[in-house]
Every structure is written in C-alpha cells, then in structure tokens.
Amino acid sequence: MTTLEERKSSLARLLANQRFAVLSTQTEDGIHSCLVAFSANASLRTLLLCTPKATRKYTNLQGNPNVTLLVHNSSNQGGDITQAMAVSITGSAREVDDADRQASLDLFLSKHPHMAEFARTPSVAMIEVKIKRFDMVTDFQDVAILYEKDLD
C-alpha cells in the first residue's frame, strides 16, 4: 500500500520534472483547454504560469477563476498503461499582483529560463493557481485524491 508521504513524494517529483500541463478553463460556452508551461512551488500549494492578456484563457480566467490542469509523464508507449502517472489538479487562478510578480517570475523562470523574454513582456500576465485538490492516477487504475490539507 502506498502511504501519503510516498504519494506526496511522487507528486513532487512529477511536478518538478514535467514542464508542461494542459490547462482547462470554463465559460458559459464550454471548456477551453490549452498547453501551458508551469512551475510549482516547493509546498505543492501553488502553480505558476504565464499568458498574454489578449488570449482566450486570460479572458476565461477573469470570468471564472476555477481551473483544472492535467500533468502526466506518459511517453506514448504501451508500457505507459502501468508505468505512467497522471495528475488532475483543481484550483483557483488569479493574476499575480505587482508586489509579488518578481518573486513569482523568479520561480517560474528557474524552471523555464528560455521563456524570460516572453514572461517579462508587460502584456503577459503571471497567473497563480492555488491548488485545492490533486487526483493522482498510477498503474492505470490506482486513484488517490489529495487535498490541500493533506500537504501539511
């Protein structure tokens, strides 16, 4: 049986090693999903991403801050069925304010230094997702749910 500490460790490794997630936002018209670069803080309580303000995802986030991100380590191979891990992350997004922008930018760029010019552009928003829940799937059907209280 996998312990909570083992699950948290696996989750931390996945979020540290994977560079991209699928972000889903929602409006009255439906769900919009897109690929985003992300960075997670060490406590696993927040994720950071950047987006131009002139995008559908930014507009959607302004209207409804509830989001889901999917992070996985599959490699499109048959063995992924038992070896890959996928995590659906549910949270609430907000634009990082000017006072906290530099610290958030530093954390994001520590993982994505190649995105510095893009991330520093004034028309690009730094978005923080406060994580409420992780739905972890390993070994094809082993599902575990971790809530923010489980991270203490």
UniProtKB/TrEMBL annotation:
This is Pyridoxamine 5'-phosphate oxidase N-terminal domain-containing protein. Residues 12-136 form the Pyridoxamine 5'-phosphate oxidase N-terminal domain. InterPro entries: Pyridox_Oxase_N, Split_barrel_FMN-bd. It comes from the Bacteria. Gene3D superfamilies: Electron Transport, Fmn-binding Protein, Chain A. The lineage of its organism: Bacteria, Pseudomonadati, Kiritimatiellota, Kiritimatiellia, Kiritimatiellales.
